[in-house]
Amino acid sequence: MSSLSENPADLDPTDPTGEVRARAEAYRNWGRWGEDDVLGTLNFIDAAKRQEAARLVTEGLTVSLGQEFNEDGPQKGWKKRNNPVHTMTGTGLDAERNPGVHPHGIGGADDLIVMPLQCSTQWDGLGHIFDHGYAWNGRRAGDVVTSQGDQVTGIEHAASVLVSRGVLLDLGRHLRPETGELEDGYAITTADLEACVAAQGASSAVGRGDILLVRTGQLARVRRQGWGDYAGGPAPGLSLTTAGWLHRSEIAAIATDTWGFEVRPNEFHDSFQPLHQIVIPNMGLTVGEMWDLEGIGRACAERGRYDFLLSAQPLPITGAVGSPLNPIALL
Known about the structure:
It comes from Citricoccus nitrophenolicus. By secondary structure, the protein is of the alpha/beta class. It has 2 domains: 285 residues, Putative cyclase (Glucose Oxidase, domain 1, 3-Layer(bba) Sandwich), CATH 3.50.30; 33 residues, no CATH class. The chain contains 10 helices and 17 strands. A 9-stranded mixed beta sheet has the order 1-17-15-9-11-13-14-4-16, with helices on both faces. A hairpin with a 2-residue loop joins strand 7 and strand 8. Helix 1 packs parallel to helix 9.
């Protein structure tokens, strides 16, 4: 056991259960906001934080942080996660061929989309991951998420909450200035995060109520080379050993440009997404994945400024354990 070391070299690669349990217990926020809480660390966002964030808008520049939702996306079918299927239910051809269907020549188009809620840019809700059969705030998983959806912490509860100060830590540019891209399998450490803050300057100081964005550069690489194993395969990402930093920083949420937020392959011989197991059900941290951080990365690098107003609301889908979104950064 590593005794909560923040050095990945100290992890016992043969003991994922022990390493996860130690951190889950040390960084658990159960009861911190009361037994009925449904927001977790989103409680760190308050009116003062939003006012602070609003004052960051000086140019009126908007940058979308969302990938497109289409059939050419990254998904390969794992856990029935497929790319969106977009179907037209009314077209211009219909209007031309059937002009008398509606009065006075009016026509229109309609469409529908079928997709998993986590197929592209998305939030993981607090009902998405369990730890030994328990969900956020110590509730039994089966009492929270049923066949009818998340009956307690559904993503709809966060629909008006996720507006705050966004902070970009561009680890790709910081650690690999020649390419701006971390290699797959690179485990971002606490030391890396702190060094990036120091290098980027005061505007990237991370604190209570912030929404942290971590750019690895992997999305830029797969856009050049093809999706490959972007969905579920090797990727740069946060080390399990950053859990303590995530907890003490009191961030409201975190998002990355990768499929799974944490480093892949994971840091143990036999494990699956162990950092998720700590931060979602135990810490109550909302996690975002597959965000497009290329535009905001360029904007921040050009200005030498790394904070902005971030509007990142999920769709209020009742009982959902995740949601697609199109986050907007305002500078």
